[in-house]
Amino acid sequence: MALPSLHDRVVVVTGASRGLGAGMAERFRSLGMRVGVCARGASPLAGRSGVVAQRLDVRDEAAMQGFAAAVAAELGPIDLWVNNAGVLEPIAFLRDLSGEALMEHLAINVGGVLAGSKAFVGHLHRTGRGGVLVNVSSGAAQRGYAGWTAYCAGKAAVDRLSECVQLEEAEHGLRAYAVAPGVVDTAMQTTIRGMSEERFPAVEKFRELKRNEAFNSPAFVADRIAALAFDPEARPDSVVLRLPSEQG
Ligand SMILES: NC(=O)c1ccc[n+]([C@@H]2O[C@H](COP(=O)([O-])OP(=O)(O)OC[C@H]3O[C@@H](n4cnc5c(N)ncnc54)[C@H](OP(=O)(O)O)[C@@H]3O)[C@@H](O)[C@H]2O)c1
Question: How far is CA 65 from CA 9, 115, 146, 207, in A?
Fold first, then answer.
């Protein structure tokens, strides 16, 4: 895929202390983009030129607003905002899931996406420019997995939230997507593979993926996101998208 020049572009990636977020941020920077990254932990890109890194919790709306302002002040107007931060736990059958644990999960996986989306939409309104919002979703938004009540419910909510903000903000130049990235071999996958079949009956499917190394790389996911944001020929019609397998 031939990407247009990305050298004058500014991208934000949340949840970029490790895993898919860190890998995507690294790839975006290597493509010449200026990059804003945040997570509770430190980003591997912190201290590099063309990078604004902040340690924050995506549940903190004020912190997210401040982060967006800092990125724009240091790097320029933001073209692409990727809400990647997310958690998998709690893994539990619904009968064992407390309402409190569910709400804690949703506060990150849905509330964090809300806070990031609001920060970006506010930025677009202030600058009068268009931009692309990508919320990292999952195949778990499309189907249920026993043991993943919280995760499936949260990712399904991310899909609908993305469709709503697209409808609300299209006239202000927003294009919004909910992107299921495929399976990426991160700490989250290590956790999944380590589960017992009692807690997570579908575990063998994920162990099989590891045996075959059948993963999408963060660079592949970043390239696909950059293409849907900046390549007019790769512009999808639907908001909810599932990336293909890198192996073809
Ligand atoms: N790996 C896969 O196969 C896969 C498949 C489909 C979808 N996804 C989605 O892809 C995204 C990244 O997953 P991953 O596999 O890279 O997981 P990961 O290795 O566990 O990384 C998660 C990232 O999210 C950040 N994060 C979590 N809670 C946060 C909070 N409250 N505030 C700020 N940052 C927070 C973490 O940073 P700190 O802990 O330092 O805050 C970390 O940087 C998630 O949304 C996940 O649901 C992953």
Answer: 20, 8, 36, 39
